[in-house]
Design a protein that fits this description.
By secondary structure, the chain is an alpha/beta fold. It has a single domain, classed as Ribosomal Protein S5, domain 2. The protein is 27% helix and 32% strand. It contains four helices and eleven strands, in the order ββββαβαββββαββα. Strand 4, helix 1 and strand 5 form a beta-alpha-beta unit. The longest helix has 13 residues. It is globular. The two termini are 16 Å apart. The mean pLDDT is 92.
Length: 169
């Protein structure tokens, strides 16, 4: 199975679905105070997501440097990319890549829950069109979604811990 260093995100730019890549690098803080750096994504939101991973999910990232990059120089403000960002950070932290055929669409709440995103049907269709085989979405997006109309595998999750378990065992 082909893997890569980034994670695919299904996002929206206005009314148009768009698939982009997010890259994360997590390493031990060499200089004492851990660094947080983000290109193309709000640094305050990244800090909040890291706090959720630390407090609610038990991942010890407070002593690590975390660098995040949205590939291609794109700036994204869609909270629907939270799940992919979290997965990219966890992938780097665990040093276990995620399949290049997997993408994500979901907002992460303060308790670690995966919240629904708007236009989920368009996000799934675009991922399917571009050849992705698997997409993780919020279980709260199920209402009104016809799962049988897609050939892409759709995994519905409710908490970050579920996603972690499914991706990394």
């Amino acid at each position: 199975m082909k893997t890569w260093n980034g994670v695919a995100i299904s996002t929206m730019e206005g009314l148009r679905p768009l698939l982009i890549e997010v890259q994360a690098l997590v390493s031990s803080a060499v200089y004492g105070t851990p660094q947080r750096s983000s290109t193309g994504f709000d640094l305050r939101r990244l800090t909040m997501l890291l706090a959720v991973l630390e407090k609610r999910c038990g991942f010890r990232l407070g002593i690590k440097d975390v660098f995040l990059n949205i590939a291609g120089g794109i700036k994204v403000e869609d909270p629907g990319i939270d799940l992919a960002l979290v997965c990219a950070v966890l992938s780097s932290n665990e040093d276990m890549p995620i399949s290049a055929k997997t993408c994500f669409a979901g907002e992460v709440g303060l308790s670690g829950e995966i919240r629904p995103v708007n236009r989920i049907d368009q996000r799934i269709s675009e991922a399917e069109k571009l050849g992705f085989e698997h997409i993780f979405i919020s279980k709260y997006n199920k209402k009104g979604l016809d799962l049988n109309s897609y050939s892409i595998k759709i995994t519905m999750v409710g908490k970050i811990e579920e996603v972690f378990s499914l991706l990394f065992g």
